[in-house]
Amino acid sequence: MKNIRIRLLPVIIALICIIVPAYKAEAKTLEFSLINMEVDVPDHILVLTKDTPSADDQWRTAGILDPEQEKESFDDMGVLAILYDTKTSSLVRLLCKQSAKTWDIFHLSLLSEEELDEFLESLTQTTDQNAVITIEKYPNEETPFFRLVIQTNFQGMDLIEVNYGTIVNGTSISYDIYVENPKEDINEDFIKELISSTRFTEFKDREEVHRLERESFKRAVTRLIIIVISIIALVIFLVISNKRKVKKQKSLSAIKADKLAKFYQEQKHKEENNIKDTQYFINKTVYSEQVIKDFQYYNKFFKNIGMWIVSAIAYLLLIFYFLNTNYLLFILSIIIAIAILYLQGIHIEKLVDKTMKSYSKNNSMEASYVFYDDYYTLSGIQYISKYPYAQIADVREYKEYIYLYMGSDRAVYLKKDGFDGSTEEFLKFIKERTDI
């Protein structure tokens, strides 16, 4: 007999090795990293989340005929997942919510018996006169739970909700069963099995978490103050700059008016006395779409580079603040920044098209400039016209071009290698005559 048992021992061990893995293969582990929780469930349990396609047959198997409407309620109810037992037809919702109360309690296990009783009593308070609420403690090895039952009647319909809940890491976590017009007592075996197989991967230290939260709040407030101060400083800078600009423009307008009056008087005198003006510089520049585009980009961005840098720094501070406080606003602020730059580019393209159309009416795209003592003439791309130097608002250089601004956003373009003389001598000449 003993020999027979010894001979059967390898067979028994082999059977155990076959049976045990097969049993383990029937189970699966659900991970909910948001709440640091794992649940072991058998393979016949259906798991439905917001990511489950609405066309998936599992919704209908679970008795949910309108998956889209069900998904919409996920956020309102704090549903992480729906668990459906295909063998018992039991449907349980895993709920997750956070409030000031749960954050203050942090772990249900930290409450004293008196505090726990007081907390559970607070959950039974309701303004619904038809509601009957009962609550009791539900011991569990991992962490204590409570069992909350709500029975009420709404428009002739009997409603029952059974909720097994706890508080871990400042979050209320519960398994919930909701039934309308129940025909028999609710089977709670499935929900109890879920609780027994629930484990938490991390129990955070309340004091440490609260300390980090306070520090994070202080940093957020500090960043916000810095951003507000930066924005106020930017606004003050822009207001002061604008006032100086307006004051300077008024002063220059008065000076230009005098210069223009003298210019026209002198021109009249020269015409009456047939006095010829001396030519100092001649320039020929071919206008093209690229030349116009380069100017528009320079005028929009590089001309006011200081303002763009200050604005960019202020906006980056705002984006950095949102990165640490609100990820949705962080993404939105980046999208807005991209949209602003894109719209600026579209605006420039439209200006280029408009300018090209105005020049395309002429027979030539080559501009001819002749510079005299107190004015210059422009021909080729338009009828020959005289422009007193008093009308020049600014002189700028960009790449291989010189821009003579005739206003804040309007200029004529002179290619540096299009002069019959020295470019440096011309710049010296034009700046002396425009006081720029």
Give a short overview.
The protein folds into 2 domains: about 25-205, 3-Layer(aba) Sandwich (Protein Transport Mog1p, Chain A); about 215-435, no CATH class. About 50% of the residues lie in helices and about 25% in strands.
Oligomer: single chain
Poorly predicted parts: 1-25
Strand proportion, as a percent range, falls in 25-35%
The number of domains is 2
Distance between the termini: 117 Å
Give me the Rg, rounded: 40 Å
Report strand order across the widest sheet.
Answer: 3-4-5-9-8-7-6
- Percent helix, as a range, is 40-55%
Class by SSE composition: alpha+beta
How many DSSP E strands? 17
Mean pLDDT equals 85
Helical element count? 11
Order of helices and strands: HEEEHHEEHHEEEEHEHEHHHEEEEEEH
What profile does the largest beta sheet have?
A: 7 strands, antiparallel
What does this structure look like?
The protein is 49% helix and 25% strand. A hairpin with a 2-residue loop joins strand 15 and strand 16 (401-405). With 436 residues, it is an alpha+beta fold. The chain has helices spanning 2-25, 57-61, 67-77, 100-105, 113-122, 189-196, 206-272, 289-302, 305-325, 327-360, 423-434, and strands at residues 27-32, 37-42, 45-48, 79-85, 90-97, 132-138, 145-154, 157-168, 171-180, 198-200, 281-286, 366-371, 375-379, 385-388, 394-398, 401-405, 411-415. The protein is elongated. The chain is built from eleven helices and 17 strands. The strands form four sheets. A seven-stranded antiparallel sheet has the order 3-4-5-9-8-7-6. It has two domains: 26-204, Protein Transport Mog1p, Chain A, CATH 3.40.1000.10; 217-434, no CATH class. Helix 7 packs antiparallel against helix 9, helix 8 crosses helix 10 and helix 9 runs antiparallel to helix 10 (327-360). Mean pLDDT is 85; it is low at 1-25. The termini are far apart.
